[in-house]
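testing teh design pipeline on a random one, pls ignore if ur not involved
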């Protein structure tokens, strides 16, 4: 059989709707300056789908630093991997800044978040080692775990009792194999907004021998007293062995990093294949990131404004009877009941009539009959944005509850 033949019969669980969804529900195109107000299909929208937590993407100081860096270095400098010819003093400076900021001995830059953590997991464990991880970890962690040729155990999301149970199983297996245990979880889970139970997991080190790696992509920059992350917020930085985050969210840039003990980071420098065999992160991006780190450390008002918007949005939703789950971060899920056609009609109403653009999650990502809207408040949003959005959701919820969105099929918006 031709390996491509199956693609004409099966487009996958999400791709099955591509003909009707593409360009509207999937792969939409937002236009204009990145920020809380953009255009979608020619209409002005209040946008809640950008992980621009601290509003740095288009901050004037950041834009100036990025522009000057590109003018100075271009986007191709340096050439080659860092191990061979792509290392610079700027790369090493940024690593020192990140290590100091996250209170670790050393840090290593990575070109991309998804690829980076996959490769780090691959380098950290061998077939004798055992991985324990949160069952609702991001896809990049799951794919990294899949690379592992040894045993792995998933624990129920943020369930410390099941986490301990899996650590017990892992301890027996590691002892049998002569290996170690790596536990992986997230600082802030990007779907439900819950912080990982880092402190509780760290406390289990008193009973079991394991190391902890956290992916804090959604927590770095604003969680904690200085913005150093969810582990700072929970007071357990010393117990988290490896701290990973990307620059594409709070930092509004590209790339990622991992920080920890110097000997471990040095090992990763010489063994993370996606870095050894890939071109170095552009120095223009590195210089721009140094500016962002300076602002992160000296402008607490960015975090304060973010949290003011978060509190106004989440309090307003709860006052109006919306279920936003257990979120304790800016990530704001809205849990509703309804079919896939109802969900798509509701999205259409929000966009076309209320000019609200936000992400929606439905089956097969979550169980049938459930709808999750995910809103990402940022420093750049205004109280006016929040209040308009609360009114819009109040209006569409009334229609959903009344059955006004019931439809025979998913509306075809791809060709509208």
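output:
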């Amino acid at each position: 059989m031709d390996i491509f033949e199956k693609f004409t019969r099966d487009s996958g669980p999400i791709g099955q709707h591509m003909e009707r969804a593409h360009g509207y529900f999937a792969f939409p195109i937002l236009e204009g300056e990145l920020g809380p107000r953009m255009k979608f299909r020619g209409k002005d929208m209040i946008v809640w789908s950008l992980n621009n937590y601290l509003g740095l993407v288009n901050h004037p100081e950041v834009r100036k630093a990025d522009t000057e860096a590109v003018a100075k270095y271009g986007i191709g400098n340096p050439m080659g991997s860092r191990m061979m010819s792509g290392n610079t003093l700027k790369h090493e400076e940024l690593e020192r800044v990140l290590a100091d900021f996250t209170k670790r001995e050393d840090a290593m830059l990575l070109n991309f978040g998804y690829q980076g953590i996959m490769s780090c997991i691959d380098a950290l464990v061998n077939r004798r080692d055992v991985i324990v991880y949160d069952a609702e970890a991001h896809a990049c962690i799951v794919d990294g775990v899949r690379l592992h040729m040894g045993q792995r155990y998933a624990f129920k999301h943020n369930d410390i009792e099941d986490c301990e149970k899996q650590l017990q199983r892992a301890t027996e297996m590691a002892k049998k194999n002569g290996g170690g245990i790596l536990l992986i979880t997230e600082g802030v889970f990007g779907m439900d907004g819950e912080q990982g139970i880092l402190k509780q997991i760290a406390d289990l080190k008193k009973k079991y021998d394991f190391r902890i790696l956290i992916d804090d992509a959604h927590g770095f920059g604003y969680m904690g007293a200085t913005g150093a992350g969810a582990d700072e917020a929970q007071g357990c930085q010393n117990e988290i062995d490896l701290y990973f985050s990307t620059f594409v969210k709070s930092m509004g840039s590209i790339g990622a990093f991992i920080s920890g003990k110097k000997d471990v980071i040095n090992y990763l420098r010489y063994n993370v294949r996606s870095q050894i065999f890939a071109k170095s992160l552009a120095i223009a991006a590195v210089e721009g990131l140094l500016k962002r780190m300076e602002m992160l450390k000296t402008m607490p008002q960015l975090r304060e404004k973010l949290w003011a918007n978060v509190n106004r949005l989440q309090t307003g939703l709860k006052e109006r009877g919306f279920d936003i789950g257990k979120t304790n971060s800016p990530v704001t899920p809205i849990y509703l009941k309804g079919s896939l056609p109802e969900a798509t009609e509701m999205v259409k109403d929000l966009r076309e009539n209320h000019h609200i653009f936000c992400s929606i999650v439905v089956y097969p990502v979550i169980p049938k009959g459930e709808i999750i809207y995910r809103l990402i408040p940022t420093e750049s949003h205004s109280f006016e944005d929040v209040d308009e959005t609360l009114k819009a959701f109040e209006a569409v919820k009334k229609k959903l509850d009344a059955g006004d969105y019931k439809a025979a099929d998913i509306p075809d918006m791809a060709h509208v």
